[in-house]
Every structure is written in structure tokens, then in C-alpha cells.
Amino acid sequence: MTDSQRILRAAAAALLAAGLGLAVAAPAAHADQPADQPAGAPAPVPAAELAQARGAVQAPAVLDQVGHFFARKGVPPTQQLTIGAAEEASAAGASAPRLAGDTVPVYVLDAAFVAGTPGAPVARAEFTASKVVAADGQSASVWTVRQGGTWRVVNIASGGDESDYAAKAASSGGTAFREPQINAWYVLRDGRVLPLDDEARRSVGASGVSLAAYQKLVHQRYGDKLPGSAYDRAGEGGGYDVARAEADARTGGGSTLPAVTAVAALGVTALAGAGVVLRRRRTAD
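Given the sequence above, the corresponding C-alpha cells read:
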């Protein structure tokens, strides 16, 4: 995946987080963690909820959309292809999209953890992801959120980062989560935050850091951008400068990967009028 493709995926996830807030069922307030739940671990999403989310992805209309996504190689419907509508429809059918692996909750860095709220988990469930593969080997991640008691598809992103990192973390007895501001994937295991991708390795080193050290790190990065801060009051929480981000990615300027603004990425400032719609991103791995 190229830097610009990573940026687009990060932007999609951050905007989703900002617009939907706690889309996946989760406790309304942070309480003391259950005795059987590791310190800092996010609240698990019930299996019944994951099954309902998966059911939404399995709907024939959704799989047809994914088939067209594969046929178009991720190119949005607003952009023209070199093939006609009939050829696209034929390719969509031939792609034979099918679900692969489990539907997983996607956990993102929790603003309360950044702020240092006692008992706050390191991350919270923001949406679920289901990996879909095509007959020719393409893969896509279909994102779903719960709204009004039902699960709805809100995005299709090329590749399967969400499911792949979740499976990798689970295989080692941990929980995967994202720090979307730098597109870093981590695993929380045995009280330590360990890297799963290059961005995370640049963030916490190859051997990771303790949960307490990670809290200090993200508080230093984003603590002045939380709700009520001067940054928030100035209205800086909803922007994302793609041109600057891509320039920084090419030149190595700025952070290791250009940051989506912290308030938006932490899901603490909702986008005005944000709706749940299918948003396709060309983010091929």
C-alpha cells in the first residue's frame, strides 16, 4: 500500500469516526474493568451484534455493490472507466464476491484514554469490518455500523487491513486497535502496546511500550486537541489537508504519516449533517 493510499484509508476511517461517534454498541460511560478483562482492553462487541453486522454484508444488494467495486478496481462511480456498463456488469458477476474470515470489531484510540480518564480502555469499537474476496484474488473490507437498531454498510475499502490485523492480534492472545491520526496498528497484549505495522513501529519501537507509557505518549500528541481545548474551540477539529498530507508523505516532512486532525480522528467532534452512506475509497494494498 502506498503512502497516499494509506492516507485515503486513514481519512475515510477518521471521517467515519467523527461523523458516527460510538456506532458500535458500547458502554455509555467508562467503569471499572471486569475482573476477567485485561487492563486497558476495549469492551468486546457481543457475538450476536457481529452476526447481525455480517448479515448486513451478506445481503445480495451489498454483495452486488462489492462486485461492481471489484469490477471497477475501486474506482468510484463518479469516475469513468474504459469499459462500458454492460462489461462492468459482466465483470461484477464474474467476480463472485464471498466473505472470508470473521466479521470483526474495529477498535480505535479512545479520547478518554488520551485524556487520562481512570478506567478508560485504550480503544473503543467504532465499526465492524468483513473481508470479502473476489474470484480473481482482489479483496475488500466492508464496514458496517449500527444505527437505529439495524446494521448498515457505510464503506468499502480495498484490501483487508481491518480483518487481517485483528486476526494477527488474536492469534497471539491480544486485541488489535488503530491510532488513526498516524494510521498505526497496534496489539494490546499483557499490558503492553506492540506494533503491527511500520507506522506503529515508528511510533513505539519494535518492542513496544507499556500501556502507561503509551497513554503518556498519546496524551502528549493529542491531549491539547480534546473537546473544550483551544484547538477545539477554534474549529480545527474537522479538517484534513490532503494536499499537505500527500506532500509530507513524499518529502518526509511533518509526522511519520500525516495526521488526520486529532479531534476528528478521535471521534469527539461530529461532522455536521453526517449521514450513513456507502463511501468507496481507492486504497488498494
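Residues 71 and 90 are 8 Å apart (CA to CA). Try to locate this feature in the C-alpha cell string yourself.
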